Amino acid sequence: MKRKYSYKKYFLGVQIGGDGCNMNSIKFFVYQVLLTFLGIANDMLFTEFVYIHFDNRIIPALMETPINLVLYYFIFKLYFSLKTIRLPYKILIHLAAFILGAIFVGLTFGILEYM
User: Fold this and answer.
1) Which bin fits 13, alpha (ψ -120 to 50), beta or left (φ > 0)?
2) Is residue 37 assigned to a domain?
């Protein structure tokens, strides 16, 4: 008995050709870019604007912690809700999203303007 093999090409967990691309991977990528942007922007804004007004670093850290916990909540909720994407693909998508989110932060805050 012959088996029929279907050769499907994948790039970062997204099927190329055939049935079309996997919308879960695209949604995961967009959410990761957004959450990466918010996380880096939160850290930069607290470092540049909030920490300089306080001599004690505990008060700004207590202000920043709930914001970071909300971001972590959404990141873990996103990771566990999309179980159809395999872990290696999630890691690759997250790395690409982190790079793109860092570029967006650099362009938004004008850091990459002079490079």
Assistant:
1) left
2) yes
Tell me whether residue 14 is in a domain: no
User: Which tens digit of pLDDT belongs to each residue from 40-51?
Assistant: 888 888 888 888
Q: Give whole-number Cα distances, 92 to 26, 76, 86, in Å.
A: 13, 16, 10
User: What are 69's two structure tokens?
Assistant: 């916990």
87 within domain boundaries: yes
In terms of residue numbers, what domain contains 45? Answer: 22-113
Q: Which of 88, 87, 73, 93 is nearest to 27 (CA)?
A: 93
- DSSP three-state, residue 29: helix
60-70 pLDDT, tens per residue? 888 889 998 99
